[in-house]
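Task: fold both queries, return tokens.
Query 1:
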Amino acid sequence: MDHESPLFHDLFGIPWLDFDLSTTLMTFISSVIVFIICTLAARNLKMKPTGFQNFMEWIVDFVKGIIGDTMDWKTGKVFLPLGLTLLVYIFISNILGVITMGVWGHELWWKSPTSDATLTLTLSALVIVLTHYYGVKVKGFKEYAKDYVRPVPFLLPFKIIEEFTNTLTLGLRLFGNIFAGEILLSLITKMAFAAAPFTFIAIIPMMAWQGFSLFIGAIQAFIFTMLTMVYMSHKVSSDH
């Protein structure tokens, strides 16, 4: 893309520390949208759900299914709020830049926050930290530490390396898919304007790609949530 994200340079007086304003803005917008969706879904709850409440309960059941496939429900039920939040938040964040892209001057403001590796790697790091926390909380530190030398102590360095690779792959997979989708959408949009007066011809592939990007956004939100529960089950379950 020719457009650059607006940066606040030299944050806190540190020359090499840049602060991406657009990512921060879009992260905040995503959070507000998720909050509004969950608030509306929780209002006027009925024993026989209809409409939006029915849709949200379907999402809750979907997340329950993810947890049930990775660990015992008695152990995993505590992670339902985490899984639900990740699924909804990541999906909303993925599709914001697909719906439209806001460019003012040469600066890209409106985009998917998950198209920034800083956000996705931060999310993945938080997930890995949570897995360690709950692993110690559920098993106790002594039993948790023994998992790193099972079945043989020789595996200890490999299991330590695995923690770093899990963080990188979890974050970079999400970033790569969303970033690539936005680049291609930007290229199709440029082709549409360059092909004037045949712009309407380029609208068809642009709409097709937007639909495909919505699908990819949903799949990536599912994969991130699923892998989160898989990593969590490895830490809290005795057999995995």
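Query 1 returned. Query 2:
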Amino acid sequence: MKNIITEGDLGIVIGEAESGSDCLSSILAVHPDIVLIDLLMPELDGIEVIEQLRIKGFQGQFIMISQIVNKEMVGEAYEKGVEFFIHKPINRIEVRSILKRITDQIQLKNSLRVIKESLDHSESAKTRQQSVKEIVLSILNDMGIIGESGSDDIILMIEILIYESDGVIQLPPLKSLYESMAAKTGNHNMSGKAIEQRIRRTILTAVNNLAAMGAIDYTNPVFEYYAPRYFDFQVVRDQMISIQEGQNESKKVKVNIKKFLQALYHDTIEKYNDK
């Protein structure tokens, strides 16, 4: 695990411990952003360690490592604040995917904090306008694709649909949306093909992230909601099988851009209108 983190430039390992009781003081002393913790450890198990750290005010994120698959244990761990599970034997692709996702969550929280502080000092009309971006960011974060090259394109597209399309129900042709994006940014030379490629790669990353999540725990509420609603579920299922079989490279799959954007638009406008 340490080699995967170090070689993949996924973060800095700042401490290790042999038992549950040994790790408490060191975690509270250095306050890491993420704690990777085994379920079964001497003296205190992973869930007991998490309970004690939360009681003492630790605010970091937890990823649990376990070779045990038990719905009751998984449910209890989520209740105690575990963000994700990594199953033994360790899979390099799974570790990279999960660490990237949880890092994106941390970055999103920081971004949302900055946005909230900005909104608190802006007039109410502007607050309303900013909320669409915040909603889309939250949804993209659930799928682990904040920071992907096409995420900004997706946000801009949803803003155009909600602010300037007068409550459309069905999305217009993608080509016209790409043209609207070019006009909005003032870059009339912006290539529709380049936009589509960025969005396609971003959606493919979401497929792979959800497949990794479903391969670990198909009862995860994020997986259960997004996998069938935003994607052709068989595509996600094929990727899950690929991960479960330990294949090092994900299969090349086709993604339905319009289905993804349609679902995202409906979810966003529903939350926007509820504000």
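Both queries returned. Flag for query 2: The chain has a mean pLDDT of 83.
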